[in-house]
Write a structure and sequence with these properties.
The chain is α/β, with parallel strands linked by helices. The chain contains 11 helices and 7 strands. The chain has 2 domains: 88 residues, Rossmann fold (3-Layer(aba) Sandwich), CATH 3.40.50; 118 residues, no CATH class. Helix 2 crosses helix 4 and helix 9 packs across helix 10.
Length: 221
């Protein structure tokens, strides 16, 4: 039984990347992602996302003046059958889980922010770290050095958007990152000096598609 078969009859949350691959017909991932959208369109899978996804996918169409592409994103996210796009509103603050969330605003590599995060993690038995901000090599390397030590044994440091390294060189013309200057290159530089972490390929094998290939770093000791 494949993953699509397992997902039938269920409700899933979709991040920005699959929408981009599907709507912009990414040559590497389109054939992988098409069956998922076909099942959603047929009503076999209930999909949801948030207005944050809409904001993210519209960045490039707005910057390049591509009104047609922006319209396609709006149509599928706001009007397509099978999709529910939730607004981020006060209802989230009223959710019982909201009290578990703390927001610390600032650069993730600023010394004062690093100190605040370390203080928050102090004494916690299980810690999982997700890195998903500036995707340049140096920034992610600094984040790994700052936050990976917080991860508890058996848990993960997840470095998102390592897939940038596998994309065409001209895919991010207006961003400071690109092929050779990505989260994945930072992971490859950082790992040899940190044998307490290993890339966990089993996570990737369980997923239909991921923006973090070689980015699931499991702490083994």
């Amino acid at each position: 039984m494949g993953l699509i078969d397992e997902l039938r009859g269920s409700r899933i949350c979709i991040d920005s990347a699959p929408f981009i691959y599907f709507i912009e017909k990414d040559p590497k991932y389109l054939n992988t992602i098409k069956p998922l959208f076909a099942e959603i369109d047929a009503g076999n899978i209930d999909a949801m996302t948030s207005t944050i996804t809409l904001l993210e996918v519209l960045v490039i169409p707005f910057k390049t003046g591509n009104a047609s592409l922006a319209k396609k994103y709006r149509e599928i996210l706001l009007n397509a059958e099978g999709f529910t796009t939730y607004e981020i509103s006060h209802e989230i603050e009223e959710h019982p889980m909201f009290k578990r969330i703390s927001m610390i605003e600032g650069s993730s590599v600023a010394p004062d922010i690093i100190a605040k995060v370390h203080e928050k993690a102090r004494g916690k038995q299980r810690v999982l770290v997700c890195l998903d901000s500036d995707h340049t090599h140096d920034h992610v390397l600094a984040e790994l050095n700052a936050y990976a030590p917080l991860v508890s044994v058996g848990s993960y440091c997840v470095v998102f958007d390592t897939v940038i390294e596998d994309m065409p060189e001209d895919f991010f013309p207006d961003r400071p990152w690109g092929k050779g200057n990505t989260p994945k290159t930072a992971v490859y530089e950082w790992l040899p000096d940190h044998p307490e972490f290993q890339i966990d390929k089993t996570i990737e094998h369980k997923l239909l598609i991921t923006v973090a290939p070689d980015g699931y770093l499991r702490r083994v000791k």
